[in-house]
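Protocol step 4 of 6: record predicted structures for both targets in the notebook before any analysis. Target 1:
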Amino acid sequence: MSVPAAHERGSRAGSEAGFRHSLFSSILLRMVSVTALLLGLGTMTTPAFAHYPWIIVTESDAAPAFRIHFGHRFPGDGRLAPHQLDEVRIIEPDGRSRTLALDDQELHPLVPLGAGTHLLAIAQLPAFWSRTIEGGRRASREQYPDAFSCSQSVNTMKAVFGDGTGDSWRREQGHPLELLPLVNPSTLRTGDALAVRVTFHGEPWTGEVKATYAGFEQQGEESYAVSVPTDSDGVARFVPASEGHWLVRAFASEDYPDPRVCDRRSYTSTLTFFVD
């Protein structure tokens, strides 16, 4: 065999080997890419534990103060800054309401308050959350039309505190999902029963009301000390059987009005109080 022929065969063999190596690398790369995409899709379509806000009021010999927490580990977690809030109101024992302006600090002092039960009512600014190929984004489908999912959260919170007189605690605030205690939470003692009526767009709501207290050992991100259903009138009843700060929570959701903007709109309402 001549040297040129052998050289030609060697060149062909090298080219074929190179082609096979290139093809294998290309297929492997595609398999890795597809696997990563599927894993990403699985991660993005798995629902995360939703964060929500609540209020903790601290009462002392000095002026009372409050913190606005955000997370899912009661009583303390992250916090909401004032620029994330839509409105902060305090309702006096006689039913008069006034708006509070908050500084950008963690602890918000309350001016010296008179006797009686007071109600803090706070609404968080609605926020979008979309799951995209790039990860979670605080935006709607208008910014990410190819998002895998989109939700808007509408969160409201209340805190009842004081010495038990007046009827501020029973005043409706017009929240889309609202917790309305049927007894004054500031008068509760360990072992007293509590009834809470839940309304959704002004109508009785059917679902599970969850409650927990400071010091409850969570077994998971979404575990609560109490979980009770509402009746046909939207009323849930349970006994806060432990002393300290308590949180009551309701959650509801519905289709977003415009599917081009988002998929779902979710609502969380919380009520906090202290049991002696």
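Target 2:
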Amino acid sequence: MALEIDVSVARCIASKACVHAAEGVFEIVNGVARVVDPDAAPLDDILAAADECPTGAITVKEDGRQL
């Protein structure tokens, strides 16, 4: 399983919803979320982080297919 998590710098407003939903996967650096450890939380938590992002800045793909 090749998991790819992308955060759009242009769309991120650093609401920290992702940090709370998928603890350890995301952190806020200089006012923008970034992925620090994609294996730190279960896939369901990562998908919840993407769903809870108020601007839709997070995309998650598995083996090239958007989840």
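Step 5 preliminary note on target 2. The chain has one domain: 3-66. The two ends are 13 Å apart (CA to CA).
Proceed to step 6 after PI sign-off.
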